[in-house]
Design brief:
Layout (H helix, E strand, L loop, with lengths): L29 E3 L6 E3 L9 E5 L3 E2 L8 H18 L3 E3 L19 H6 L4 E10 L2 E10 L4 E11 L3 H17 L8 E6 L6 E6 L6 E2 L7 E6 L5 E6 L6 E6 L4 E6 L5 E6 L5 E6 L6 E6 L5 E3 L7 E6 L5 E6 L6 E6 L6 E2 L7 E6 L5 E8 L2 E8 L6 E2 L6 E6 L5 E6 L6 E6 L6 E2 L6 E6 L6
Parallel strand pairs: 3-5, 3-6, 4-6
Antiparallel strand pairs: 1-2, 6-7, 7-8, 9-10, 9-32, 10-11, 12-13, 13-14, 14-15, 16-17, 17-18, 18-19, 20-21, 21-22, 22-23, 24-25, 25-26, 26-27, 28-29, 29-30, 30-31
Length: 449
């Protein structure tokens, strides 16, 4: 049985309501910090209301429209609105509800009573200026509750990185209003055959800014991000054997991590970036090994006359979830990082694989075969009854977003496999790739580019 065989998955059509957020809603409590001008929103476990936010159109700083300014304004405005709408914390208000749409330079220009009456909690007022190959933007964030500005920040980016600029703005707004880090600046790596070979690609979380990261003309499998987001490991048949490589994204350099005869695949990085757990078959069958990334020294963790594969570190680095058929069929198991205290997690279904820890470490998403199709399931790490999040076609390879509120996955629901995202309860499914066969998504940590 190959790693690709042990990489299939399963689920049902139930909606997982208890996982979507660590909040049932957001209670708006704006706290004035004594001696400061900042206002923050405190997120609690009670209440059902989201933050209703108005994002005004990006206007030229001097209100004079240059030839390309209309397009710049549309891209920046649309991207920020979509970023905030994707977040579980916000409802982005329709522009028809805006009491005013321009002419706002400072607090004195805003009629906060009118905005509050329109049901708006926060107002984003952006301006921009295009200079040659660069775009500069200034964003102000106002609270209608206290009638004051709570954020003012400037941004600069090359013109071709306009979406990145917008994502940076969105993440700062999320951080300011919720205290949580946003994920608009994250990427999703995946394998695609759009060039005729399985190569490594990456795309923004929303499907924009596609880039190809390898051109090996060989089969590539199992991308995995380093915790800092500056490197990504993968398995490649470039030399005929499935060897483990790492791509340094800063230097754009690929080096070999492990090239034992047989499988070197399914890597997962420890949270501190010092170690990698992965699958090695040099002993005659697939076993779990742990490698010191600096010294390249590997140590075997499993000693079972069975296939052990697809290991993944827990967020605190103390445990490893993995797939094993030691019970006769592939199931998810959990063990300590030393290979001891092994316990079986999944019992429902006869084929469970490809575990993905939630960032808080309390849930595991995985693939499970149900009625002949693979679906995405989620369950507590302590065990219990799984909740199935998908039902149409085959849905495989779940990968949590770094905030834990979303899951990326591959699905053939429309024919060829494409990459999708969904909320962590299975709602709001979105397709983010459209060309070719796309598989094996890996959601990046929060990174700066």
């Amino acid at each position: 049985m190959t790693q690709a065989t042990i990489s299939e998955c399963i689920l049902n059509s139930s909606i997982y309501r208890s996982l979507i957020l660590p909040i049932v809603g957001i209670l708006f409590i704006f706290i004035l910090l004594y001696g400061q001008t900042d206002v923050h929103v405190k997120i609690t476990d009670s209440g059902t209301e989201k933050i209703r936010i108005a994002v005004l159109d990006f206007f030229p700083k001097n209100l004079v429209w240059n030839p390309d300014d209309r397009r710049i304004s549309e891209v920046l405005t649309q991207t920020v609105r979509e970023d905030l709408e994707f977040s579980p914390f916000f409802t982005v208000m329709d522009t028809a509800a805006f009491p005013q749409e321009q002419g706002i330079l400072d607090e004195k220009d805003i009629n906060f009573i009118n905005w509050a009456t329109a049901g708006v909690h926060a107002i984003v007022v952006p301006v921009f200026e295009s200079k040659d190959d660069r775009i500069e933007a200034k964003v102000q964030l106002f609270s209608t509750t206290y009638g004051k500005r709570i954020m003012k920040k400037s941004y600069k980016r090359e013109r071709e990185k306009i979406h990145r600029l917008a994502h940076n703005i969105s993440d700062d707004i999320v951080k300011k209003l919720t205290g949580e880090d946003g994920i608009a600046s994250t990427k999703i790596a995946f394998i695609s055959k759009r060039t005729g070979k399985r190569e490594l690609f990456a795309i923004d979380y929303d499907g924009r800014s596609l880039c190809q990261w390898t051109k090996t003309n060989a089969i590539i499998l199992s991308p995995a991000w380093s915790p800092t987001g500056d490197a990504i490991s993968f398995t490649s048949y470039a030399k005929g054997n499935p060897d483990l490589y790492v791509l340094d994204l800063t230097r754009r350099r690929i080096t070999v991590l492990s090239d034992f005869v047989g499988l070197n695949t399914s890597a997962s990085w420890s949270p501190d970036g010092r170690n990698i757990v992965y699958t090695v078959s040099k002993d005659g069958n697939s076993e779990i090994y742990i490698m010191d990334v600096r010294t390249r020294r590997s140590e075997r963790l499993t000693y079972e006359n069975a296939i052990d594969t697809n290991p993944t570190f827990s967020p605190d680095g103390s445990r490893i979830a993995f797939t094993s058929d030691r019970s006769g069929k592939p199931q998810i198991y959990i063990m300590d990082i030393t290979g001891i205290n092994i316990r079986r997690l999944t019992y429902e279904g006869n084929y469970n694989d490809l575990a993905s820890w939630s960032p808080k470490g309390d849930k595991i998403a995985y693939c499970s075969r149900f009625d002949g199709l693979f679906q995405i399931a989620v369950m507590d790490v302590s065990g219990g009854i799984p909740v199935y999040l998908t039902s149409l076609g085959n849905n495989e390879c779940p990968s949590f977003s770094p905030d834990g509120y979303h899951i990326a996955f591959a699905s053939d629901r429309l024919g060829n496999y494409k990459i999708y995202t969904m909320d962590a309860d299975g709602a709001n499914i979105r397709r983010i790739t459209s060309t070719g066969w796309n598989y094996d998504p890996a959601w990046s940590p929060r990174i700066e580019y």
